[in-house]
Design a protein that fits this description.
Layout lengths: L1 H11 L4 H8 L3 H9 L7 H11 L3 H5 L3 H9 L2 H12 L4 H16 L1
Length: 109
């Protein structure tokens, strides 16, 4: 669902509802209504503002295929918090990849 995708991306980017609402230029309460499913039909203008602020496209926010659902199901709140903290601490994708390779190597020996 669109509301889950918006919330997921907001958390991945490390934004609070207040931060994203300011960045997108929409009210905090309206964004909250969207994320909670109270507002189910935001305009394309609002979706465009949110997509731009989240570094994605409107299509991505609206996409409801299996791939998106799979991502949401496998990325629980704790993982999102861990990734957000790692990003905030300056850990890059390359650093993370090297760490995973090290753990795999260590577990084999």
């Amino acid at each position: 669902m669109m509301r889950n995708r918006i919330k997921q991306l907001r958390k991945l980017r490390g934004y609070s509802i207040n931060e994203l609402s300011l960045k997108a230029g929409i009210s905090k309460s309206y964004l909250s209504y969207i994320e909670r499913g109270i507002q189910q039909n935001p305009s394309l203008f609002i979706l465009s503002k949110l997509a731009n602020s989240l570094g994605t496209t409107v299509e991505d926010l609206l996409e409801e295929n299996q791939h998106s659902k799979k991502e949401v199901n496998h990325l629980d709140e704790e993982w999102i918090e861990l990734f957000t903290e790692a990003i905030n601490q300056g850990i890059t994708k390359k650093d993370f990849s090297l760490y995973l390779e090290f753990i795999k190597f260590k577990n084999q020996h």
